[in-house]
Amino acid sequence: MSDWRRFWQAWRAEITHIVADRAVLLVIVGGLLFYAVLYPLPYQKSVPGEQAIAVLDSDHSAMARQLIRMADAAPQIRVAARPGSMAEAEALLANDEVHGLLVIPEGFERNVYLGNPTSLSFAGDASYFLIYGNVVEGLLTAATTLSVQTQLMSSLLKGDNPMQIPGHIMPMRVITKPVFNPTSGYLNYIVPAVFVLILHQTLLIAAGSVTIKDRARRFLGQPATSLALAIPLRVASFMLIYLLFAMLYFGFFFRLYGIPHVATPGPLLLFSLLFFMAATLFAIWLGYLLPRPELTTVVVLLSSLPIVFTAGFAWPAESLPRWLDVITLLIPVKPGIQGFLAINQMGAPIISIWREIGVLLGLCALYGSWIGWLAHRQRRLAK
Amino acid sequence: MATNNVTGWQALRRQPWLLALVGWLPPVLTLLLIAIFALGTPQSLPIGVVDLDHTAEARALQRHLDASPALDVRHPYASPSEGAVALQRGEVLALLIIPNDFGRDLRLSLSPEAVAFYNSQYLLAGKFIASAVTQSSMTFAAETGVALRLGQGYALPEAVAAAAPVRPQITALYNAGMSYALFLVTTITPALWQIMIVVATLLTLYWRLENAPLPDGYLARSHALWQLLMPISLLLWLQGLITLGLFHYFLGWTPEGSVGWLIVGMALMVLAIQSMAMLILAVVANKVRALSLCAAYLAPAFAFMGITFPRGDMNMLARLWGNLMPSTHYIELQVAVADHGAPLATLLPPLLTLLLFLIPLPFAIRALPKQLTVDPTEQVST
């Protein structure tokens, strides 16, 4: 019975260290709510709208006008300016007034009718890749439509076998279809991964600074629970607190933002528990390396952007240098993001992400035993 | 401690963390970003193939796609369901399904279709694959079209012209190679540099306020802060200039316009962020809370810059929040100078906006807490 009482007292002490610390509460409650609103803010529109382009028409033919109408009709672009010269067009691009340029050369219509191969020049502003991609896609759609119409006309005029005309114009095609994020929306792309990152980073700050303050108290010789009990209880406390926030993030906020999510509660719960265990152990390990609580925030702030681009969603992990792809697996958020995306957004069964589960279990063992060693050594030093 | 012992140079000598932030961390993190994007553009992205046709034409299509440097098509699956599982767990980033009778329909000019499903959860990789597959399959179609027409008795030039009457020539302005390294490293680095500026400034102020009280008079206070922050500001500015040098050396980044404007812009950016850091510390007068607020304020800066997702397509609130961050204006300046080589009239608005951030500085200097106390139960002294 008294063992139980000691256990509950120790747990109460751990929970108190978390909820009585205003700085930690500010990060967990304030931070998690604020970031859930702030990070998705830029992407509310999700799919970029029509981008302004300029058309330099040196042909002034009926076909040129038809091409311009087709370009304007493409959903990705709108014709916003008709400069009279190349210099004028370049000035429009430099001032950010338009992000693309279509040049229709002199003699364009005549050459197409005579069957001479004719080139059309497009230029897009590659300072912004998403805009560039849209401009090029819009212009290509317009040019391909025009090209197909011309081919169809000439095939009909020549009296080709109508059955074979589709094959003449387009001998075959590969249709590309997006899956998992059917609208190809930016919100669906960024938010599920960044939410995992926010949970992980705030957990590092909170559990890291709780650990540093606990070490400071022990260093001053204040009475405390034995570490063999305190650390497992701290891990369990953070796992439970973060499970609540995971429900808020993956439940309420995903629904609010209309993010597709397909995992059933069971596997999601299991994977969340494993992820938070690895992340808390990593945080406590950091807490044993850093001397002051504000330094956990510094480490988190400096590491966030490099993590975004090495975690495999913003930039393909296959394109990272091999050594970087491997060492970044030591941070629990990377296998975490990849696992959550696979089960919750891509609908993979939990068995199929054994690799991510294995890495997280390995990280738990690594940081768990490392903390044991650090705690043992520091206690000896303190004596 | 005497006042000559609490200058910025002393802070650097006493605090290894501060020394790291203004010394070796900025170039190391810039080099890390350069290493992340070392490939320039994504290459050999894995694509699964389910070939239900097994004809020479189906194999020719696969070979043609595999020749594209962006794609690695050597991941065969026996059935669509096996391929789908691989796509779900991220083993391949797209799945190409070549239907029955693909080869036969191609020979009969019936224009067969194959489908490539791409993972749009990993949007950048997915879109990159989709565009590589489309381009590569169009050249395959054009070549096949020429071969078919030659078989039907056309002469070669006629066959070529008939296969592609209008040829698009696409130019990527300002980044001819469409290098992601150039696109992302040069824009992520300023966001990371901004974070280092705010953190270094706060840590310097903390150290100063923990070691000696600030004088009361406004002029004496300004003088003490000048002695404290001037060396830090200079070093941070220098670090900004070094990143430009690293861009040039490793990425071949060469500004279109005069780099002088960026040097001025970087100095203004350092001062603007320091002014905001001082304002935040003056308002909350607490170490951990000031740092948390700076984190909330500046950590998402990259998303609000409008480099990856255009600012023109953000809502009012997002644009407003973006405008509150110095990095947004600095990037506007950097794109105008380095990419567009824009005239002075385009450069002035971002430069002047950066100056606006200095307006709260006099208030912040006056309102800074006189002293911060060290709580022994909150840090491990060794």
Describe the structure in your own words.
The complex is a heterodimer of chains A (383) and B (382). Chain A is α/β, with parallel strands linked by helices and 383 residues long. Chain A is elongated, with a radius of gyration of 29 Å. Chain A has 14 helices and 5 strands. Helix content of chain A is 66%, strand content 8%. Chain B is α/β, with parallel strands linked by helices and 382 residues long. Chain B folds into 2 domains: 3-37 and 179-367; 45-163, abc type-2 transporter like domain (abc type-2 transporter like fold, 3-Layer(aba) Sandwich). Chain B has 17 helices and 5 strands. Chain B has helices spanning 8-14, 16-22, 25-36, 56-67, 80-88, 102-107, 123-151, 156-163, 180-211, 218-251, 259-284, 287-298, 301-304, 316-323, 326-340, 344-356, 361-367; strands at 45-51, 71-76, 94-98, 113-119, 166-173. In chain B, helix 9 (180-211) crosses helix 11 and helix 11 runs parallel beside helix 16. Chain B is elongated, with a radius of gyration of 29 Å. The two termini of chain B are 21 Å apart. At the A-B interface, helix 2, strand 4, helix 6, helix 7 and strand 5 of A face helix 3, helix 5, helix 6, strand 4 and helix 7 of B. Chain A: It is a multi-pass membrane protein. Chain A: Keywords: Cell membrane, Membrane, Transmembrane, Transmembrane helix. Chain A: The chain crosses the membrane at residues 20-38, 189-212, 233-256, 268-288, 295-315, 357-375.
